[in-house]
Amino acid sequence: MLFLAISTDYVVGDKSVHTILLPNSSHLEAVNPVCAGVARGKQMYRKTGDYCLQDHSRPGENIMPIIVHGDAAFSGQGVVAETFALSKVPHFDVGGSIHLITNNQVGFTTPAHRGRSSTYCSDMGKMVNCPIIHVNGDYAEDVVRACRLAFSYRQLFRKDVIVDLICWRRWGHNEIDEPSFTNPAMYRKIESRRSVPDIYAEQLVNADIVSQNDINTVVGEYTKELETQHSEMESYKPKVQHLEKQWSGFIQAPHEVQVWDTGVDVDLLRYVGAKSVAYPESFNIHQTLEKHHVSTRLKRLAAGTGIDWATAEAMAFGSLLTQGFVVRISGQDCGRGTFSHRHCMLVDQETNEVYIPLNDIDPDQKAYIEVCNSILSEEAVMGFEYGMSIDNPKCLCIWEAQFGDFFNGAQIMIDTMVSSGECKKTAIEARNKACPRKHYGRSSGKGLINVCS
To answer: Is the torsion defined by CA of 208, 209, 214, 219 positive or negative?
Structure first.
């Protein structure tokens, strides 16, 4: 999964770590749930964590999301709280993320005491009892210790952990900003401070660990490398890599409108339609569902007429599963359906156990539907599904808004990720967005489906 992202293999000794830097939109913290979704998507693709059929793999096996935050945005952006709220919910668990907060104690120009109501910028993590490690950024080795502790905690407990890197920003928010306009007292102190690399280099020399000549050599070589890269900037042409690895075999869509034959044999549709309401003899189904959901669907399938939305949807899902494509549907009440129309998951009235008929189509079934009743969030959940969809071409991810007007809560994701992803970041996705009914809740209008793929 490479879509205008920086991707490299970082080698330490005889071991290698494949690292991907996701492209971020200008909307603060919007990439957080996308990063988590990509991590979950990779687990699905590799069949690890919750997707391991042998049940010996924990979530987050061999995959770790590392999310870098700003102090003011971490406190102020609601998607941070939404993403934390998702972190241990079934079907959204990625085995924990490491959060690194670059805490320079000022948000754009706003001082910390005006940027939040809590004592620490990291306090948002307390909502999920997230461990928080505060460390002074002036001390490089302490920062390393803090990060190692965070890594060890995440690997052991597979939960989120925060490193609050308390530091300072020497220059303004951008090249033309003068920070002393709004924070004069702070910047009088900052101007008198030496840089962190200079302080650390002096400590190493005084401890007789390295010589000043060694430091000069390292700095000189690194500066030369930066200058070389800068000189090649004008002639550099990035390689488009979005149709490689798991996306190999796909081609870029042409500009002209195309029509595909996506029809399925009618006998297969009848078969998966009937299977979508089949259940074991020992299963205690709700009597109303037996009468109005199961029996009615079987009659309509036999007659071949009066096929309603939910039946058509079930046949579409089932036909994809028989072809080896995974289906994942998430949203608020998506298992039952907002209007009690879908019922792709059945709940035993005696044991409360969940049974998903479409996951029992065939004894040799290879692909399954994942039904993910989500928290009551739009932005984070859609961002999560977007992250999953851009990493796995064999998975149809569907996010369903509870009502048509609820999709407004995900507008940032729609504007900066979904609608412009392929154009801006060459990010191809396999995902649908479903908005039941009209914009104003439960109206009499027909359902609305926006297909973004």
So the answer is: negative
- Which backbone phi and psi does 34 adopt, to 5 degrees? -65, -45
Residues 6+ apart with CB under 8 A from 184: none
Residues present in the chain in total:
453
Q: What's the whole-number mean pLDDT along residues 173-188?
A: 88
Question: Phi and psi dihedrals of 274, rounded to 5?
Answer: -70, -40
pLDDT tens sequence across 9-28? 889 889 999 888 888 878 89
Q: Hey, how many other C-beta atoms are within 10 angstroms of the C-beta on 320?
A: 20
pTM: 0.89
pLDDT digits over 37-61, tens only?
Answer: 999 999 998 899 999 887 778 999 8
Q: How far apart are the first and last CA of the chain?
A: 16
